[in-house]
Design goal:
Number of strands: 14
CATH superfamily of the largest domain: NAD(P)-binding Rossmann-like Domain
CATH architecture of the largest domain: 3-Layer(aba) Sandwich
Number of domains: 2
Helix content: 25-40%
CATH topology of the largest domain: Rossmann fold
Distance between the termini: 34 Å
Structural class: alpha/beta
Largest sheet: 7 strands, parallel
Number of helices: 10
Order of helices and strands: EHEEHEHHEHEEHEEEHEEHEEHH
Shape: globular
Length: 319
């Protein structure tokens, strides 16, 4: 098979591209390089620079490489920005997906893996969030991911496309220093940035109904996440037409923000106490995945822990 990876020059996408190649799969990267980095693309993998809104370029790319499967990661993903620019997020994330699905089905692609998010759940009031939990997203970003799942699933029902929606939890770490997260939207790089600047890490709210008062999250190593994509792609390749999977991709273990900051201090050699700030609107107290379905459906479980995530991310920042 040949897999088209949209957003394959991004932080997560590049890890998926490298993991696919290591598994012996053929891959092509499609990325507009708005946040992606050309040098992240594996050697020997062709990069096409373009938008998922460009149907003509998609058609040419899918045909030229005889693409049989798509892993779609390209999307805008900042929650706060989505509140300020909902029209942009719906255009890029939903319309871009619609155009891509239209091109993929016209080209005879038979497998489609969609990058979704735990943001579809909103504020779940359960210890472990199963895939059957109600979806009530709290931001336009989360809405676009849920709408994307609906669109992918409906296309599969109508055309026989084999589909999977992977709901990522909190991604951190790096498989190699060159693939480290260079953005400042996620907790680990945000704390690194403040520590390196001689400033206290910030914790937004310490009065939640959790053991230490700070929010509890499920953190997943990006290398484990990449392996989940490979396992999903391989599962779909041999599946019946119209197969549809919806899977949480997490460790099933909760770590509080305070605990994560403590681990970061320990792994980096700092000892800077965090500053407690006001709560951010819409932050749920606890969001932790129930991860059993992924084990059952694709034979995958996360292997790496939060110390692996922090140590590998810090090595990437230092490189």
């Amino acid at each position: 098979m040949t897999w088209l990876i949209t957003g394959g020059a991004g932080y997560i996408g590049a890890h998926v591209a490298h993991a696919l190649r290591a598994a012996g799969e053929q891959a092509v990267v499609y990325d507009d390089l708005s946040t992606g980095i050309r040098e992240r693309v594996p050697s020997g993998v062709e990069l096409t620079v373009g938008s998922t809104l460009d149907r003509a370029l998609l058609d040419r790319t899918l045909t030229a490489h005889a693409v049989t499967g798509v892993i779609h990661l390209a999307a805008k993903k900042q929650v706060g920005e989505s509140v300020e620019q909902p029209l942009r997020y719906y255009r890029e994330n939903v319309e871009g997906l619609r155009v891509l699905l239209e091109a993929a089905t016209a080209a005879g692609v038979h497998s489609f893996v969609f990058s979704s998010s735990a943001a579809v759940y909103g504020v779940p009031d359960v210890d472990l969030v199963t895939e059957d939990a109600p979806c009530m997203p709290m931001s336009p970003y989360g809405e676009t991911k849920l709408a994307g799942e609906w669109l992918v699933r409906a296309t599969g029902r109508a055309t026989g496309l084999r589909t999977a929606s992977l709901r990522y939890f909190n991604v951190a770490g790096a498989a190699t220093p060159e693939l480290a997260d260079t953005g400042l939207c996620n907790l680990v790089p945000m704390v690194f940035e403040r520590l390196s600047a001689g400033e206290a890490p910030q914790i937004f709210g310490a009065d939640y109904p959790t053991p230490d008062g700070t929010c509890v999250r499920d953190y997943i190593h990006v290398a484990d996440l990449a392996e989940a994509h490979v396992a999903t792609a391989q599962r779909l390749s041999g599946a019946a037409p119209g197969t549809d999977l919806t899977l949480n991709i997490g460790r099933g273990e909760g770590v509080s923000v305070r605990e994560m900051v403590d681990v970061i201090n320990q792994e980096t050699g700092y000892a800077t106490p965090p500053a407690i700030m006001d709560r951010r609107p819409g932050d749920p107290a606890r969001v932790v995945a129930a991860a059993d379905r992924a084990a059952e459906e694709i034979g995958w479980r996360a292997k790496l822990d939060v110390r692996d995530m922090v140590a590998s991310a810090w090595a990437g920042r230092a490189s």
